[in-house]
């Protein structure tokens, strides 16, 4: 997808990695509104459609801006954001402003790290062994899971790629809101 800033790119990475997001549209629509006898146009940055929850498919429209820009130019943005809120409410959508405080988090770092493993082919032999060991351990850490599963360092290193693929695809769960390390708690996903 295209993006206008590195902050917007990072938000797209977060949305893309979120398993609850089904659809992402960049600059999804434009609004025209009257200002001082003329017309202005506003185009939000991103629209995300989430998985159905209780019969509802949540849609959120996002504006991505640095905190400092919002602080310095709030008067300029206020009217367009109000129009976006109105437009979204008419459709039972939500409008949210996100800043680097929401985006530049451990979740973003984890998503950047794990995304490269999502497309890896399944290494079935390693997957089966890791799944078997994890079932026996319950909650553990990547380091402990590899140590229990394999004695040889070469096999541990080879299995690590499959372990990260399993985390990236949600087959193994962890908290992505904290920096991911070899000592992070991991557990078998309830759906896997």
Question: What's the SSE blueprint?
Answer:
Layout lengths: L5 H12 L3 E6 L4 E5 L2 E5 L3 E5 L8 E6 L2 H24 L3 E5 L1 H4 L2 H13 L5 H14 L4 H8 L3 H16 L3 E3 L11 E3 L4
Helix pairs in contact: 1-4, 4-7, 5-6, 6-7
Describe the structure.
With 192 residues, the protein is of the alpha+beta class. It folds into 2 domains: 98 residues, Trna Endonuclease, Chain: A, domain 1 (3-Layer(aba) Sandwich); 73 residues, Arc Repressor Mutant, subunit A, CATH 1.10.10. It is built from 7 helices and 8 strands. The strands form 3 sheets. The chain has a 4-stranded mixed β-sheet. Strands 2-3 form a two-stranded antiparallel ribbon. Helix 5 packs across helix 6. The longest helix is centred in the middle third of the chain and has 24 residues. The chain is elongated. It starts with 5 loop residues before the first helix and ends with a strand. The relative contact order is 0.12.
Tell me the CATH topology of the largest domain: Trna Endonuclease, Chain: A, domain 1
Count of distinct strands: 8
Regions with little confidence, pLDDT below 50 for 5+ residues: none
Give me the number of helical elements: 7
Q: How is the biggest beta sheet arranged?
A: 4 strands, mixed
Helix content: 40-55%
Q: Calculate Rg over CA atoms.
A: 21 Å
Number of domains: 2
Supply the helix-strand structural class: alpha+beta
The backbone outline, from C-alpha atoms, is: elongated
Q: Which oligomeric form is depicted?
A: single chain
Q: Percent of residues in beta strands?
A: 15-25%
Distance between the termini: 30 Å
Helix/strand order: HEEEEEHEHHHHHEE
């Amino acid at each position: 997808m295209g993006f206008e800033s590195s902050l917007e790119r990072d938000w797209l990475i977060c949305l893309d990695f979120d398993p609850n997001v089904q659809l992402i549209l960049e600059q999804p629509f434009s609004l025209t509104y009257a200002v001082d006898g003329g017309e202005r146009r506003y185009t939000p940055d991103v629209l995300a459609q989430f998985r159905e929850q209780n019969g509802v498919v949540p849609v959120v429209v996002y504006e991505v801006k640095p905190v400092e820009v919002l602080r310095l130019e709030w008067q300029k943005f206020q009217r367009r954001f109000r129009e976006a809120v109105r437009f979204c409410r008419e459709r039972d959508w939500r409008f949210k402003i996100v800043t680097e405080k929401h985006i530049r988090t451990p979740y973003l770092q984890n998503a950047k790290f794990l995304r490269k493993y999502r497309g890896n082919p399944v290494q079935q032999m390693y997957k089966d062994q890791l799944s078997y060991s994890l079932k026996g351990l319950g909650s553990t850490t990547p380091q402990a899971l590899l140590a229990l599963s394999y004695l040889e360092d070469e096999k541990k290193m080879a299995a690590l790629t499959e372990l990260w693929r399993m985390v990236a695809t949600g087959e193994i769960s962890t908290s992505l809101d904290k920096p991911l390390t070899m000592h992070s708690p991991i557990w078998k996903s309830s759906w896997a």
